[in-house]
Specification:
Layout (H helix, E strand, L loop, with lengths): L1 E3 L12 E7 L3 H4 L10 E7 L2 E7 H9 L3 H7 L3 E4 L2 H14 L2 H19 L4 E3 L3 H16 L8 H8 L3 H15 L6 E3 L2 H15 L12 H16 L3
Parallel strand pairs: 2-4
Antiparallel strand pairs: 1-2, 1-5, 3-4, 6-7
Helix pairs in contact: 2-10, 4-10, 5-6, 6-7, 6-9
């Protein structure tokens, strides 16, 4: 099963292709006393605008139990190159049992805070990095407003979580610049966007969420793991 994920939900003329996939190893790979020590990630060097990496199905199911946001995004990608329908259907049916808004909240908040400190402090900033703070901030606003898992596309997040017309126009202008291939390296900060991000990071940094833990157990994950191996290997 392979899932293609557009870079952060805001592709541009010079974006590469982020290909993310889940895979199953041969039978003997799992039937080993040292399976926990074996590599469970495949990463291919970036070439010809292709950024390709994937996770072993066992690793993916372990991360699903933790409500890992990147995995949730992969499974909800609007663009799919190829998939094993039996396996992907089983995984997606598990999402309501393992989705944790609290875990996702902290993931996106840490991402937004880290990228802000790294790229957007001061009067001169890395302009294209606004997207790498804006998207996780809007993802949290989605979590606050909706019960559904955060969608991949930035446009959907903007439409659902921003009511301020001026702010929407500012973001739309930046998206248009990026999609047209404009250079978005170091430059003056965008006041309206910086103000919004700073206010949101202050607000979210003080927010306390009720820790209602997801109810999924390992039993369902084990069932999907075994059935996925059988699908991949064949009944024999």
């Amino acid at each position: 099963m392979s899932l293609e994920v557009a870079p952060g939900g805001f592709p541009s003329a010079d974006s590469d292709y982020d290909v993310r996939f889940l895979y199953v190893r041969p039978r003997d790979w799992y039937l080993s006393v040292d399976v926990e020590k074996k590599p469970d990630v495949i990463e291919v060097p970036i070439t010809d605008e292709l950024d390709v990496s994937g996770w072993d199905i066992r690793k993916a199911l372990t991360l699903l139990k933790k409500s890992n946001p990147p995995l949730l995004e992969w499974l909800n990608s609007p663009i799919i190159y190829r998939q094993s329908v039996n396996i992907t259907d089983r995984l997606r049916k598990l999402l309501p049992d393992y989705y944790s808004p609290v875990a996702c909240f902290h993931h996106y908040l840490n991402m937004a805070q880290g990228n802000f400190k790294e790229y957007l402090k001061g009067d001169i900033v890395w302009v294209k990095k606004y997207f790498y703070v804006l998207r996780p901030v809007l993802a949290i606003r989605w979590i606050e407003a909706c019960e559904e898992i955060v969608p991949m596309t930035l446009g959907e997040l903007i439409e659902k979580t921003i009511l301020d017309g001026e702010l929407k126009a500012t973001i739309a202008d930046l998206i248009q610049r990026k999609q047209s291939g404009a250079e978005l390296d170091r430059g003056p900060a965008i006041p309206r966007l910086s103000e919004f991000i700073k206010d949101e990071l202050r607000r979210l940094g003080n927010k306390k969420l009720k820790d209602h833990r997801h109810k999924g157990t390992s039993d369902k994950l084990n069932e999907v793991f075994r059935s996925s191996l059988l699908d991949a290997w064949g009944a024999g």
